[in-house]
Amino acid sequence: MMVDIQSLFGEKGKTMPFALEDQWTPALIAPDVREFLSPVKVKGTVTNQEDGYLVQAEGETELLLQCDRCLAPVPYHITFGLEELFALTGSNKEKETETFSGHTIDLMAAVERSIASALPMKVLCKEDCKGICPKCGKDLNEGDCDCTESNIDPRFESLRALFQLDKEV
Length: 169
Fold this sequence. Notes:
Layout: E1 2-4, E2 15-22, E3 35-36, E4 40-49, E5 52-66, E6 73-88, E7 98-100, E8 104-106, H1 108-118, H2 160-163
Parallel strand pairs: 6-7
Antiparallel strand pairs: 1-8, 2-4, 3-5, 4-5, 5-6
C-alpha cells in the first residue's frame, strides 16, 4: 500500500487525498484471522507538515475470524482509523515517527497495526454459542455429547468423600 507524495515536496501545508485498495492474505495480524474476504480499502489524506507528512485515513475490510467458543468461521466487517506521522529517514529525531525514503510512503505496517487494534476481544458465531465439549471435542451447538456431566479433577477426587456429592440431601 504505497502512496506517492512527490507532489507534496517543498510545499508545507499542502494536502493530497488518496484512495488505496489491496487484496491481503492473512499474515501475523492476529491468530484468529483466517482470511481476508474482501480487499482492504483505505481512503484519506496526506498533509505536508513542518515535522513530516501526516497521514489521516479510514479503512475497511471483511475478515473471516473464528468463534472463540466453538472455532466455527465467522465473517466480520471491520472499520478502522489511521493517523500516523511519517518523516524522511534521519530528518526527525525529536518526535516518534515512522520513516520512509524516496517519494513514496508504505502504509502496510500502519494499516496492519490499525486492523489488529480494531479487532474485537471476543468473537462469537452467535450469542448463545455453547462451545465444544472439553472432553471429546464435539460441537455442542449441534447437540449434546455422550460425556458424563460430573467433571471432577482427579487431583481433587479424594475430597469427594468429604462433601458426599453423590448422596441426596
